[in-house]
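call fold(seq) -> tokens
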Amino acid sequence: MRIVVTGGAGFIGSHLVDFLLKKNHEVIVIDNLSTGWLKNLEKAHKFPNFSFYNVDIRDKDKLIPLFENVDWVFHLAALADIVPSIEKPRDYFETNVDGTFNVLEASKKTNVKRFIYAASSSCYGIPKVCPTPETSAISPQYPYALTKYLGEELVMHFEKLYKIPSISLRFFNVYGPRARTTGTYGAVFGVFLAQKLNNKPFTVVGDGTQTRDFTYVSDIVEAIYKAADSDITGEIFNVGSSGHYSVNKLVRLLKGEFVNVPKRPGEPEKTFADVSKIYKNLGWRAKISFENGVKKLLEHIEDFKDAPIWDEKSIEKATKNWFKYLTPNQKQKL
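ret:
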């Protein structure tokens, strides 16, 4: 297959690229390196059937030529992170919504055979049902979540109207080597591993009893590939680990001292995907246990040596607007 991966220099994207190249596919990565890293593609550059283009998905004129004769498109390019999306909602809309529209337009004009969209479980907001099925209410709490959901809506609309065979995958709390550490406040693994490397206490949000459906990146990649390699179209699937694990358990596995920082508004007490639909339709389920995933990640702890080192004061400063806009009963609204 001739395959385009947008956001292929990012965390999940680069793991997907490595996976596709090992299967001897021709892979074209489109990434503007705003959140991705060329070092994530060191292995990929050794393959003759790999090519990289530093192109922004907002630049529609540069996109279309890169989609000529492409079979599959994996659309992972997006701006992530909560706080920056609150501070700069236009940037998020232009990349995650307008950019997705451009990628879909390019796919339509070049008659791609399969389109897989990387959606986000953040669309559920604070879910009322756990495990959370795909039929649960959509309730985005911040612009990142909203724009990722609007991108999904575009994908499903193009699938229905323009007959682009498409699947949207709602990822739950992905972790693993190369996890993103940039942004106003990185994901928990990047934060904790940088703190561990520097003998700093882990900054546990709230009392640490909140649980997350932590899903290892190799499982995510296999789900993406299974979706593309199927004949199913027009469906949305959750992709999760079939479990949920507390932040306190993560701290115990990582072994270190910790301090507690204020609980953040707009975040659920629990994320836990109902994955019965993807198992029934695609035969996919996660293989990597949480314990094994953390062990694997610790083997790559040096990958996080350049990550920001957060403490109580820097977190308080960085999340000021988070609390300003998302705390209930305040006048400021999104």
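The chain has a mean pLDDT of 95.
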